[in-house]
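Below is how a single chain appears once it has passed through the pipeline. First comes the sequence as given, then the structure the pipeline wrote out for it. We keep one example in the README because the format questions we get most often are answered faster by looking than by reading.
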Amino acid sequence: MSDRKLDAVDITYYAEPPSYQHFLAEHLLKNEPALIGPALTASWRARTEWAQPIKKTTTRDHDNHNPTTEPNFQFLFQTFGAAQVQVADCLERDFTDQKRGNMTFAQFIEMWQSNAEESAGRYYLKDWHFVKAFPDYHAYEVPDIFEDDWMNEYWPSRDEEDPDDYRFVYMGGDGTFTPFHADVYRSYSWSSNICGVKRWTLFPPGQEHLFKDKFGNNVYDIRDVDEKKFPRFSEAKRVVIYQVDGTTLFVPSGWWHQVENIGATISINHNWNNACNLKMMSKSLGSDLAEVCHTISDVKDMMDALEFEQTCQRILLINSGWNWETLWGMFACIMERLKQDLDAHSPCENRPPVKFSLNAIREVVDYWSRFPALKTVFKAADNQDLQVVDKLLIDIEHKLKKMSSMAS
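Resulting structure:
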């Protein structure tokens, strides 16, 4: 399944899904990737209805890493054709991403099939919020080991007209790819191949300085790196994995990667987080905020202190997708559920102990509370989440102490 490059980076393969406790200890806490066999996805509706045995092999040879299934285009077209989707043109770079356009899913399928061999590597349906679009279809079940998902617990619950989520479907032909990147917020991700094969090149954290040019720009396509601009990129440790039909890859926080599709490929992907990677996500938020503050530092003297901090938070939200208020909103949501779990004496088997999650939140709250601007920004926005989170922390800590004393 894996083809190691430059350095031996072990990727554990599980023919059967591991228990949550094993996955927590060996992968979530250690921030190590894992590949899980087709047994995990075998019963999914997406696997039985979206894919079919391959009829004709038109892919390039990849050391025998070729797909055995392909999309059931007729079923997909008839069932989901009217949906609006976002499609990337893999031949058109747009800064660090690819140029994207909107169309119906039926138009995408027609475009994909009409000139299959010539355009196979060009058009890639990305970031389709399938669960939002078809909430009653139930294409898959979130595996137990990925159930502790704060992002997709919080974002859909937000009081917005069209709340976001981080549950996606991807579809693309042979040769379509996602450029070199690390996942949003430095979250975890999991990706299940419904059909086709993905070639992943994963880079362990701590090598980010090797990915940048002198202007701070990152490598875009690892298959075409200008050695003059990125003279040390070849030093980066990496591992190449071929993810075949039906398998699921867990990508830990901060692991940069590039993905290329082999054959007509469909995948289901979630970005997610929990207490285990909260500190890394907070660090990412801090780095992004520092970059924003530095970028607009030349206009700082034109604003009062509050206006500058508010401007930084607005830009941070636009650029990174979240800011202080988003983070505290997630804390309030998750801790309310933790409190309810304690009240009901019903801890979930697929989550760490409440105390572990609470301590992770407490550490991040204490870190950001050292910034005087935090309270000022929340007060100006009339946002009560600072007080809500502080109260929940105290309440839950009190409950845990009471339960501990009763047990002893």
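Residues 276-407 form one domain.

See the next section for the split statistics.
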